[in-house]
Amino acid sequence: MRAGPRHVACVMDGNGRWAQRRSLPRTAGHRAAEAAVIDVIEAARAAGVEWLSLYAFSTENWNRPGAEVEFLMRLVRRVVRKHAPLLLARGIRCRFLGVSDPRIPRALAQDFEDAALLTAENRGMTLTVAFDHGGRRDIVEAARSLILSGTPADEVTERLFADHLPFPDTPDVDLVVRTSGEQRISNFMLWQVAYAEWVFPEVLWPDFRAPDFLACLHTYRRRDRRFGGVAARTNGDPS
Question: What is the span of the domain harbouring residue 49?
Fold first, then answer.
């Protein structure tokens, strides 16, 4: 059985359906998601995951009803301010991927900056919160950066291109967990997930807990990652 993943990314899906099944407003599902976030962060750290990325708000989520978006902005601000000291105490470095849309309240953007600065010197797990994130936008911005740098076309390599993405020190994603059974990429870290393994647990995100996360890690360890190659034979096993 292979070692655990170095970088795990989670698409935190199912908040709205969780609320709907309980005849509650969608905002109740978002509020209930906080406990799952903290549980997964703690479980990932304890399991030795070095990088954890959470998809909190996409560039497409701006198309949701205005009242829901406003609620999410207030909720995320409360969660960040509440848990930043915990991240600091746990040795977790926190970073925010995206955060470029002017519709983000200035106070929330400042909270993101403060949390990142507070935990910048931590050398434990790196937590990346993707907020106002779009994988296509990141790729377009990297291409613009390369053009503006004057790099000749025949000198562009995958490694050089990756160096122009946000947080270029971020390793490729090994495992993506998307809860609620949905099976879509949803414009999430498109460059970094090129060779990721995917797991789609049926549980809705607000009910997702450490045992569910650890089960996903176990599934990953049982996968045969060949990266387009052929598995090596061991002990006469032709598989």
Answer: 7-134+173-221
Q: Which of 198, 207, 201 is nearest to 181 (CA)?
A: 201
d(CA 43, CA 23): 30
pLDDT digits (tens, 9 = 90+) for 100-111: 999 999 999 999
Give 147-189 pLDDT, tens digit per residue.
999 999 999 999 999 999 999 999 999 999 999 999 999 999 9
DSSP 202: S
Question: Among residues 137, 119, 135, 117, which one has the least CA distance to residue 127?
Answer: 119
pLDDT value of residue 239: 43
Query: Does any domain span residue 80?
Result: yes
Residue 205 CB-half CA count within 13 A: 26
Of 13, 111, 132, 174, the active-site residue reads: 13
Active site residue 212: no
Contacts of 142 by beta carbon, 8 Å cutoff, 6+ apart: 161, 162, 164, 165, 191
**pLDDT tens digits for 32-54?**
999 999 999 999 999 999 999 99
* CATH number of the CATH domain containing 53: 3.40.1180.10
Residue showing tokens 């949905």: 182
Is 61 in the active site? yes
Among the options 39, 61, 122, 172, which is catalytic?
61
Helix, strand, coil percent content, the chain, rounded in steps of 5: 45, 15, 40
